[in-house]
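Input record (one chain):
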Amino acid sequence: MTKVCSNALVTLLVALAFGCWGGDEKKTSATTTPAAPASARAAAANPAAAPAPPGPANQAQHRTVDPEKLKERQAGVEVKQGQFPASFPEYLRYPDAQPKTSMLVNGSGLVMLTSDKPIADVLSHYREQLPSEGWIVDSVKESKDGGRASLRAHKQSENTTISISPGQGGGTDIAIALNLAG
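The corresponding structure, as predicted from the sequence alone:
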């Protein structure tokens, strides 16, 4: 009975392997199946008595999450809906704009705002505001019809791209990508 079980187990594993790996391989029929080692036969007969095999599957069952390491990993992550992240610079916040959503990791990321001001007013604000904070405006692009605009700027090793476009429900959407590489 043990030999039949181990042969069936080996046959099942072989069938699963060929099924999972596609089947582009040349198919042959197996005429005999070699006997499994005594330890494998004993494990098949009494699975509870068999020692757990070493490896990732066994280690995952006993792995615990260190709360301090988890806090360290999450410390620099800010995901917000409807409010500004605490680390987002005040001078990049457009006056009276409402934050929609944001994700910052160690101060770098994306913040989405919405405003009732026209695109031209928003662009003009950032053109003036960024240089007053020590940023150098690298480029400004505006669509011919004034329906979209973007501004790229840097300050030492930091950089930002501000994209301004019509909002879906009216108003103006402002997307601020911020990279604090320094």
